[in-house]
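Each field is set out underneath.
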Amino acid sequence: MAQQSASSSQSGPNAAIAAAIREHLTDGNLPCADAFAVAAKERVTARSVGEAADMLSIRLARCQLGLFGYPGKKGWVGAGVTVLAVPEGLEAAITAARNPDGHLTCVAAWRLADRFGISRMQVGWIAEQMAVKIVSCQLGAF
């Protein structure tokens, strides 16, 4: 099945996507993990859900990498990842996965989390400690 677009017209987002987003709001915001659930349910790209949320003036929250949408700005301390050991080889893998600009894409960070069997949040924290900027949010937030 072909992927739907986030917008059904110039005036706003696809009605089904908008309804699904509204069903997943927490304190008026759309958590990152829920945005991906909406994308899967509606069979659209994560970017389409992010664009639809933007059209609805709904903020994304609780980035799975810990970058935004948490009290105090970043979610790493609350998630407890700041005290976890760095898996052997992860820093080298982050360095190797950087794009030509020296940044790590969101997709690459997720893949590293899967590869090392750790949380996405922990990869976000370690990249932050390495001063490696994470770019190209799959939802379009950054």
About this structure: Confidence is low (pLDDT under 50) at residues 1-5.
